[in-house]
User: What shape does this take?
Amino acid sequence: MTFSSTPQLPGTIGRLSCAFGQAGQYFFQGARNVVRFARSEYQYFAGLNFLFLAFYDSIIHDTPVPIPYNEILRVSACMDEIFDQLRRSPSPVL
Assistant: This one.
């Protein structure tokens, strides 16, 4: 979600109203996340859960996988290269 920062009112009042408008949006989204967490709908690996379900669904219904195999291999090769470079790095990376 992006927050609108365009003043609706002129001058200083407009700049103040933007800050209060953004604060209200932050509060609303924070409260929404608390409710989702209380309902166990806000999970750390929700995206991974979706991918597993979509993958199993693709096997059962013989449909395309959610992430094409060539993309999986491309990202894996990229991650392997990153890890190799980190291992070869002479100084610790923070």
